[in-house]
Amino acid sequence: MRSLKKVNKVNKRGLRVGLWEFYDVDGRMWCKGMYKNDLMDGYWEYYHDNGKLLSRGNYVKSLRDGYWQEFNRRGVLSHIREYKDGSKI
Fold it and tell me: Is this prediction's pTM over 0.70?
């Protein structure tokens, strides 16, 4: 038996928790990541409209934190940027 990953959950208070995935009107995923008490918290990925990875990194309380990798439309790493409390270092 195969188990399915539960996504886009809310807790009893109606706050987003766990893994969330977002899709555009054509059904292409444009980002996915973790929520904790309705705040982006943990690893996130964003995608170009061609499905290739655009960027990835971590959020803490909905602010970018740590190293973020950015990729060009071919999926090749183009930049690494460091953030602290949402600000570029």
Answer: yes
pLDDT digit string (tens) for 4-19? 456 899 999 999 999 9
User: What are the distances in angstroms from CA 84 to CA 22, 60, 66?
Assistant: 25, 9, 6
Domain at 9-88, CATH from 2.20.110.10, 2.60.40.1180, 3.30.390.50, 3.40.50.720: 2.20.110.10
Compute and round to an integer the Cα radius of gyration of the chain.
14
Helix (H) or strand (E) holding 87: strand 87-88
Report which DSSP code applies to 14: S
**How does the average pLDDT of the chain come out, rounded?**
93
Q: Amino acid letter at 46?
A: Y
